[in-house]
Amino acid sequence: SSLISDFANAGRQQRVVVQAEQSSRMTPESVLKLYVPNSSGTLVPLGAFVSTHWEQGPVQIARYNGYPAFRISGDAAPGVSTGEAMAEIERIVSELPQGIGYEWTGLSYQERLASGQAVGLFGLALLVVFLLLVALYESWAIPLVVMLIVPVGALGSVLAVTAVGMPNDVYFKVGLITIIGLAAKNAILIVEFAKELWDQGHSLRDAALQAARLRFRPIVMTSLAFILGVVPLTLATGAGAASQRAIGTGVIGGMLSATLLGVVLVPIFFVWVLSALRRKPHAQQIADDQQLSEK
According to the lineage, what is the superkingdom (predicted)? Predict the structure, then answer.
């Protein structure tokens, strides 16, 4: 048989192959009688320079997009992300002889398409949370205080996953996005109460310290309840256990850092940001406006 052309069929490229009649290729002896051109262009029997013998061959020949192919399936080694495993496979395939190619299918194909979207998703999550807080407090300063604790939670997630040797895969990124909301939730408990005390006339320092002291127990209790609820994910076994452990470990690490460090850092951020912006308490601002209107 010989390939003479290609043509498009239903969105796929198909080969056009010509071959001898069935009666002329049924046995090895009949194949050896076929005439083929030699280097000088003269037709000679194939048996003049070729011999045949029987070998064990594949029972079934699989094809992909019309080309002979075989499927390779596997899982990444412990501590190696799927992205790193795919990159290593691509490196190995690039060293194979010319004419051998590869295509990703299934989940690997979808991961390759979405590989560049992680940074955009993190940025979008941060932006959405920040804008919601801006709309809630009608201020840019208070949401900024809340968002400053998010990197602390993210750092805890990274350290927890690295400590147990887990990869930075798509499941870990899902847990990282979750930490953005959870870390902001803890900070809101302190900032909301500190803002109320500040509006009542307390100094920034006193308002922040009182809010941290009074909100410490609610923050610890809610965070501890959430962490205990996530523990089964870190202890998961069986099918899909790797993804559950990646999410659970990252979320627990982020919650621990956002909780333990948040009760200390959030008051500092509150005083620092509002002092830097030199804002007046809401009650004092109203009084100033009233005095200005009376004049």
Answer: Bacteria
Give the separation between CA 28 and CA 53, rounded to whole angstroms. Answer: 8
Element (H, E) at 280: none
User: The tokens of 18 are what?
Assistant: 């010509």
**pLDDT tens digits, one per residue of 157-196:** 889 888 888 777 777 888 888 888 888 888 888 888 888 8
User: Domain boundaries in the chain?
Assistant: 9-49, 73-115, 118-294
pTM above 0.70, yes or no: no
Say how far apart CA 73 and CA 185 lie, in whole Å.
41
CA 288 to chain centre: 50
Half-sphere exposure of 169 (CA within 13 A, CB side): 26
Superfamily of domain 118-294: Multidrug efflux transporter AcrB transmembrane domain (1.20.1640.10)
Q: Tell me, what amino acid is at 27?
A: T
272 close to 148: Cβ distance less than 8 angstroms: no
Please, are residues 17 and 38 in contact by the beta-carbon 8 Å criterion?
A: no
Backbone angles phi, psi at 165, to 5 degrees: 75, 25
Beta strands 2-9 and 12-18: pairing type?
A: antiparallel
Tokens representing 246 are: 């990646």
